[in-house]
Amino acid sequence: MGVCHAAGVLNLSGQGVVPGMLSGLVGLPLLAMVGVWCCPAAWVRRVAVGGGIATLLWTGLVLAQFDVHTAGWQMGEQVPWLGMLGLNYGLAVDGVSLPLLGLSSLVLLLVLASKLLPAKAGSFQ
């Protein structure tokens, strides 16, 4: 069913994908968070929206690599985390979680971008 690579990436669909795509998608908002924390106050919103755009683009790459004709988990990653306790770090997407992944990235960007718009007096209070 899957092929275990020497790098520790488990490709459950058997197709060639870029290793670490899902881990990158998890790490990118965390990197943006550190950027927001470290930047001057005047740049906070711009850095946050930039992180949201980068996350949405990365999600698009994940969507492009997903094979809709293959059932089950795809783009799986599994790496030993705490070996002595038998714990592993693992990520994968399927046909149900993929649209939710795209939707959450889009909502993140829309919420962050809405903060850049000026507030209008008397609008939906």
What does this protein look like?
With 125 residues, this protein is of the alpha+beta class. The chain has one domain (18-69, 79-114). Helices cover 46% and strands 16% of the residues. It contains three helices and four strands, in the order E-E-H-H-E-E-H. The protein has helices spanning 21-38, 44-65, 97-114; strands spanning 3-4, 10-11, 74-82, 87-93. The strands form two sheets. A two-stranded antiparallel sheet has the order 1-2. A two-stranded antiparallel sheet has the order 3-4. Helix 1 runs antiparallel to helix 2 (44-65) and helix 2 packs antiparallel against helix 3. The termini are far apart.
How would you classify the quaternary structure? Answer: single chain
- Shape summary: flat
**Range of helix content:** 40-55%
**Which ranges are low-confidence, i.e. pLDDT below 50, for 5 or more consecutive residues?**
1-14
Q: Could you give the distance between the termini?
A: 54 Å
Order of helices and strands: EEHHEEH
Q: What's the total helix number?
A: 3
Strand order across the biggest sheet? Answer: 1-2
The total domain count is: 1
Instruction: Return the average pLDDT rounded to an integer.
Output: 81
The total count of strands amounts to: 4
Radius of gyration, taken over Cα atoms and rounded to an integer in Å = 18 Å
What does the largest sheet look like?
2 strands, antiparallel
The SS-based structural class is alpha+beta
